[in-house]
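Write out the 3D structure for:
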Amino acid sequence: MRTEFVKIPPSVLARVTDVHHERNMYAHPNPLARAIFWQRLAVGFRLLSRRASAQAKLLDFGGGSGAFLPALARRFPEVSIVDKDIDDARRVASHYALDNVRLCEFDVTNWEDPQLYDAVVAMDVLEHFADMSVPQRFFAKHLKRDGLLLVSLPTENALYELGRIVLRKSKPADHYHPASELVRCYRDRGYSLLAHRYVPRLGPCALPLFYVGLFRKAV
């Protein structure tokens, strides 16, 4: 399986995805914003690839943008996406002819699936749940014991707020929790932190805008 990260070219994103959708920062007109969001995925991909089996069955939780899909589908033999809106992911999968992808257009609170997954990725998703127990119950049900959980989370610190000012964006009403609160919550529930990185990285230095972490679920 392919182990290097796959970044969707801007021309492809503009053609096959809704570039005006709030989630599609990967096609943002500001090149710095685009670079930071792609770097989150690339850093997370490296963390996951070092720990996950090449045969792992993977679930992208809330991955309807499809941005992570080409990299994940070329690294793992089975990839599922569950999200309320998967239109962009569907078009990305079609464009790249990804035949090992299963697209599930459901609210995660009522998705029924008998499968257990070896790894789940949740990139900039967990902060959108006011009730943190909702994704926790989902992972308890669908992630194997000893399974891997990859997350990307906004730090919501002063530097992050400055970034919003630069991009002329206001804080979304559904950004309920900063990274520090979510990390503490999952560790308190028995998830062990295997590795983490801050993004963006500028040479040897990292600016703490996003927290990218890889956890292992308790056995």
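The first helix runs from residue 10 to 16.
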